[in-house]
Amino acid sequence: MSFEVFTLGEHRYKVSKDFYSVQLELIHAIELISKLDEQLGLNPPQSQGEPNFIHLGRKLLSTLTHMDSKSMQMLMHTASRDQLVDIMRTVKGSKLENRLMTHTTKRNRQAIQTDVLYNQPIKPVEALRAYTDFFALVERLIEAEQITLVDPDGEYY
User: Fold this and answer.
1) Do the domain assignments include residue 149?
2) What is the pLDDT along the chain (157 residues), one digit of tens a residue?
């Protein structure tokens, strides 16, 4: 069985078959892929390991770090402290955490690092919520033309 996938916008897709049609936001598509992988045995259940969407979310965050400094600082400044804490918990102890922290104000960096939740592992449900909220913010800022995503190879998305 094959489905047709239509692009409805930069982060919106429509999956269609004669009897089935659905429109998905990017983050919801990632969650769906993770659930399908779980059912096919390609992804551990959320209770038994790290689901694929956490890895995919990290990849998307890594892509964001290729933005120009002004856009990255705007994004990190606009995000709420709670969003930043949760996002940083998903990349804790990695090079990506350091790259994201460099675009955060010193005051926010200190607030994140002293937050009670910062040193606690993040549950998959919390990680999914964090990615959903953060990437919704990214999409709003892109649509408002306040930030610009840049392809590392030099092409704009």
Assistant:
1) no
2) 566 777 777 666 677 776 666 666 766 777 777 667 666 766 555 556 566 677 778 888 888 888 888 999 999 999 999 999 999 999 998 899 999 999 998 998 999 999 999 999 888 778 888 988 898 898 889 889 898 876 656 554 4
In a domain, 90, yes or no: yes
Looking up tokens 């038994």 gives 48
CATH number (domain holding residue 76): 1.10.220.30
Count: domains in the chain: 1
Note whether residue 152 is domain-resident: no
Q: Which of 53, 62, 63 is nearest to 123 (CA)?
A: 53
Sign of CA dihedral 25, 98, 141, 126: positive
> Burial code of 8-42, b = ≥16 C-beta within 10 A, e = fewer?
eeebebeeeeeeeeeebbbbebbbebbbeebeeee
What range defines the domain where residue 139 resides?
4-143
pTM tops 0.90, yes or no: no
Give a yes or no: residue 148 inside a domain: no
